[in-house]
Amino acid sequence: MIVFEWGSQTRRRPRRRRLPACPAGTGHPVAAAHPAGPAGPARRRRSVYGRLHRERGDIALELVLIAPIIIFMIFLVIQFSLWYHARHVVTVAAQEGARAARAANTSSAAAETAGRNRAYAFIDTLGGSIVEDPNVVVNRGVNTVSVRVTANAVHVIPGLSLQVRGQSVGPIERFVPPS
Known about the structure:
CATH topology of the domain at 60-171: Pantoate--beta-alanine Ligase, Chain: A,domain 2
CATH architecture of the domain at 60-171: 2-Layer Sandwich
Shape: rod-shaped
Order of helices and strands: EEHHHEEE
């Protein structure tokens, strides 16, 4: 008997019996030497224990292989949602800039400046941490105003820089006296 002692408890475990040698070099132990035959419950218990013992650590290995892929996919979803929000902010900034440039009843240069300032102010107010390096281009023609905003969305995944664009075109507001 082997005696194990843990604290005040003592546990005894019986020693395993060894199987007799193979008769005449057949490579198989004698069936009579097994307590319940060659396929009895004791043999099944040993084979299940051996199988479980060989598979120890498989879960940790699978976690080590799968966890980085899952984390990358989560970051990819976050990156896409930030890009989508930045695209929305840039589009609405272009609309705000066009609205300010359309309503200005001054010269073209003053209207373009008003539209550009309104678009930058909107980006700073709503998307200052989402939108990086915004660029606003305002063109005021004879009848229409065009505002184009380009920027980069903030990136969570290193090396992945996504550009966002927004554009708005509208007619210039004028007072036309009734005829």
